[in-house]
Each structure stands twice: as C-alpha cells, then as structure tokens.
Amino acid sequence: MSAPAPSPSFDSRALRQVLGAFVTGVTVITTVDKDGRPHGLTANSFSSVSLDPPLILWSQSLTSPSHPVFREAERFVVNILADDQVEISNRFGSGGADKFNGCPTRPGLGGVPLIQGCAAYLECRRINSFPGGDHLVFLGQVDRIERTGLQPLVFGGGKYLVAQPHDLGLLAAPGGANIARLKAVRLATRALVSLSDELDETLALGVWGNKGPTIVRWEESSEPVSDNLRTGLVLPVLTSATGLAFAAWLPRETTAPFIEAELAQGMDLVQVEQQLAQARASGIVRLVGTDKFADLYGTSISAASVPVFDHSGAMVLALTALGHTQRMDLSEGSLLVTGLRHCAAAVSQRLGGRSPAATASNDPLTAA
C-alpha cells in the first residue's frame, strides 16, 4: 500500500497568485441545453491539445451553476474575446441569471451561440471528459474555426492586459536616430506602466525635442500631484529633474543654447555645475521640495530622473518620477529610487546601452 501523498505547503490563494504569472487569453465557452437555451461562462483554462486531429481542452468547476448543462452538452463554442470585450468577460464571469440579455450573438453549429465581436471562434464537439480534482476537463474536437483579425484580450496577474508585439532580445541598431528613439519610447512605455503600477507613483517619460526636454508619456499614481499632466509638456533644462538629466548626459553642443538662455536669466552657474556633477556621480537627478512648478501643479513637488542610453552610448530618454514631497522617498535604497534605477538599466540593456559613467558629459557650462 502506497504512502499518502504529502499535503502541499501552500494554500489555494498562493497557488492562484503563482498561476497568475502565466498570462493567458480570455474565452467565453458557450453551449445550449436540451431545450435550446444558451449558457456560457468565462474561462481561461482553454488550451490546444492536437493539430491532427484538431483537439482542444478546457475545464470547469464542479460547483459552477452551468456545470450540469456543459457535462451533458454535445457541442460547445470557444469564443476568444477581443481586447475591447472586458465587459463581456465580466458579464459571463459573474453569476447573473441572463448573461445573454443584450449580448449580440449568432447561431453556430448545433445552434450554439457565437458572441459577436470576438477575436476568434472554435466550434467544437465534445468527445470526452475527465475528472480533474474540483474541475471536470472537457476534450473537444474542432469542427469549424474563424479568425476575425481583432486583437485578443489578455489576462495575467489578476488584471486584464493587451497583447503587444515583443522586441526579441537586444534591439538591432536602426538605420536612423528617429527610428531608434521611437523604438526606445515604445519599449520604455511598457516598463513605465509596469513600474507605476508597482510603486503607485506618477511617472513620466521624457525625450529631447526641438524645444528641449519634452514629456511624451505620463502614468499617474492614485494620488497624482495634479490633474494638469499634459503630454507634450516642454520643461526647462536647469530647474526640472528631466531637464537636468539631459543636461548631465547629453553632449554639451546639444544642450548649450538652452542652458545658456536659462543661465542668462540669472541662475547660479556654480550651483548648476554642482547639481550636474552630483547627478553624474550618482546616476540620478533629485529635486526635493521645489516650488519652480507651483503655477503648473499648484504646489511644491519633489522629483527624480534617471537616464536611458542606446547602443551608441547616447542618452535617448529620461524616466522621471514626481509627486507631493511628503509622499516621495528619494533616499538611496528607497523603493522609488531603486525601481527607477532598475527600470532604466533594464531598458538601456534592451537597447544595448552603456552605463551612465561611460557617457557622462563633463564639459563645463558657460555663463553666456
């Protein structure tokens, strides 16, 4: 007699969190009962099994209200939801009595409804089912398929996501600087969204534009410093964290006209030189409790900015965090500073970039 299997050292909640790391599409499985009434539920347990013959599987909880119907149904449809069908997913994932009320459908094989507007459909015939713990696993043979061309809805980590192309490995050296910057912005935007969600901080993505430091993307926190977070905002070079980052690491010939114009307004040259030297040495710009943007944000703010470098060693982006001074910890080793550093390093690595120490601009400023 075999020994009983050891009890797992984790609970169902921990297991669910681990499984959430596996990102899936979202489907609604539909069928009809013996009286022709439609039934459906949201499922991300769908998976392919075989191409020849074409087989798929999905599983359903034994306690699901519609389980007796699916257990006896001869046919079902896997409706692969499109990225604008979050409401459909939530509707069929709930315990509502009439999930099909107001949901456009069309009849498929055996009268099983196909939900309109999906990314794809697989019309299946149930050929077997197998017990799987607290679920029943259905094996289906695919009789008819359809791909609409719409982008699929994605789910992972307990939230809905959208599918985007992935730049495999290091980005190849592009043919022009503009294309390189577009690729860098696309890559950094994804990282910015993830970091903002993780830290609950307002983050900005800055580029060097025709008029100087320019914000091309915002990700707001649950407590943004202002509602006035404008894409396309042009910032001063020497009084903003984003601007100081570009001043510290861009070639002096690029920034000189802007820096000289701001120095001419009476700024302290020695103080600015010290700020830039400190930024280059530490790899980060910090501004604590500045009121230079009170007219824009309505309050004093704190901010931090780190550079992103491309394959040529040039700074192409600034990742910046800003917010109310009392809620921002800009000390070394804080979650925010560590998160910014790691994010910038990861994006730079994907771009083939070199370290900040190898690309710092140490040319002296001039007081024009």
Automatic annotation (TrEMBL):
**Which positions fall inside the IclR-ED domain?**
170-353
For this UniProt record, give its keywords in alphabetical order, as a comma-separated list: Oxidoreductase
A single Gene Ontology MF term assigned here is: FMN binding
Q: Which InterPro entries match?
A: Flavin_Rdtase-like_dom, GAF-like_dom_sf, NADH-dep_flavin_reductase, Split_barrel_FMN-bd, Tscrpt_reg_IclR_C
Q: Which domain of life is it from?
A: Bacteria
Matching SMART domains, A to Z?
Flavin_Reduct
Pfam family membership, one: Flavin_Reduct
Q: Which PROSITE patterns match?
A: ICLR_ED
PANTHER family, per the entry: FLAVIN REDUCTASE, FLAVIN-DEPENDENT MONOOXYGENASE, REDUCTASE SUBUNIT HSAB
Q: Which family does it belong to?
A: Belongs to the non-flavoprotein flavin reductase family.
Q: What is this protein called?
A: Flavin reductase
Species annotation: Ramlibacter monticola
